[in-house]
Design goal:
The protein is an alpha+beta fold. Helices cover 32% and strands 40% of the residues. It has four helices and twelve strands; from the N terminus they run H-E-E-E-E-E-E-H-H-E-E-E-E-E-E-H. The strands form three sheets. Strands 7, 8, 9, 10, 11 and 12 form a six-stranded antiparallel beta sheet that branches. Helix 1 runs antiparallel to helix 3 (88-126).
Length: 224
C-alpha cells in the first residue's frame, strides 16, 4: 500500500508542475476513519482508458467530495483529481508513516527470529546434561532491582500448582526471555531435571542450575 501511494505521489507531483483540467468521468468512494480518509477513485478518460487510484489524506469529512480531473499538460497520460494535488503533503506524510510501520514490523520480526535462534542453540547445548530444556510462559513482575516470574507447573503429584522465581537484575540478569513481553507476559527458557517435574527457570548468568564453569562458558558463548 505504501509503495502504491508513493508511486501515485510521484505522478501527482509531475501533474502539479503543469496541470490542466480535463472533463473525465470520475467514480469513487471514501472511507473515513477518525480523521483519515481512504479514497478509491476510478477515472475514465475520453478514449475509454480506465485509471484507478487510491488516496490517503487527513479529512474526516462526512459529506461527499466534489472533485475535478486534472492531467499533466506535458504528459496527458498522467491523470489525477484536484483533491490529490491539494493534499500531496498529507499523502506524503501518510506514506512515510506507513513505510516506517512496515520497517518496524520487519525489525521486530528479525529480532524475534534472532532471539529464537539463539535459544535453540542454548537448548542444543543443554541437551545431554540430564536436563530437559523447556519453554515456560510466565508473568513477569518487576520491582526495583527484583524481578519475579510467576508460572504454573505440574508437581510430582500431578497437581498444577503456582510457582515463583525471583531474580536480581544486577547479580543474575533476570530470566532468559524468548520473544517479546506483552502486558507483562512472556516465554522464558527453563529446564526440567530427571527427578523433578517442576521447571527451573534459567537466569542469564546460568547460576540457578548446577552447571560447571566450562558448561556455563559454552552456554554464554552460544548466547553471545
Amino acid at each position: 500500500m505504501a509503495v502504491r501511494n508513493y508511486l501515485g505521489l510521484i505522478d501527482d507531483y509531475r501533474i502539479s508542475r503543469n496541470p490542466v483540467v480535463v472533463d473525465y468521468k470520475v467514480e469513487g468512494k471514501c472511507r473515513a476513519k477518525r480523521m483519515v480518509d481512504n479514497c478509491s477513485v476510478k477515472i475514465t478518460t475520453d478514449t475509454g482508458k480506465v485509471i484507478e487510484r487510491n488516496y490517503t489524506f487527513l479529512g474526516g469529512k462526512k459529506g461527499n467530495y466534489e472533485v475535478v480531473t486534472v492531467a499533466s499538460a506535458d504528459d496527458p497520460s498522467l491523470v489525477t483529481i484536484d483533491l490529490a494535488i491539494d493534499n500531496m503533503k498529507t499523502q506524503f506524510l501518510g506514506t512515510i508513516f506507513l513505510i516506517l510501520i512496515f520497517i518496524l514490523v520487519i525489525w521486530m520480526s528479525l529480532g524475534c527470529f534472532l532471539r529464537t535462534h539463539k535459544m535453540l542453540k542454548v537448548i542444543d547445548e543443554i541437551n545431554g546434561k540430564k536436563l530437559t530444556p523447556v519453554i515456560v510462559p510466565i508473568k513477569l513482575i518487576t520491582y526495583g532491582k527484583t524481578m519475579t516470574a510467576l508460572y504454573r507447573a505440574n508437581n510430582a503429584q500431578g497437581v498444577n500448582a503456582k510457582y515463583a522465581a525471583n531474580f536480581n537484575k544486577e547479580s543474575d540478569g533476570g530470566p532468559i526471555i524468548i520473544g517479546d513481553i506483552i502486558r507483562s507476559k512472556c516465554n522464558v527458557l527453563a529446564v526440567i531435571g530427571q527427578n523433578n517435574s517442576v521447571p527451573i527457570i534459567l537466569d542469564e548468568n546460568f547460576t540457578r542450575c548446577d552447571f560447571t564453569d566450562s558448561e556455563i562458558q559454552a552456554l554464554i558463548e552460544v548466547l553471545s
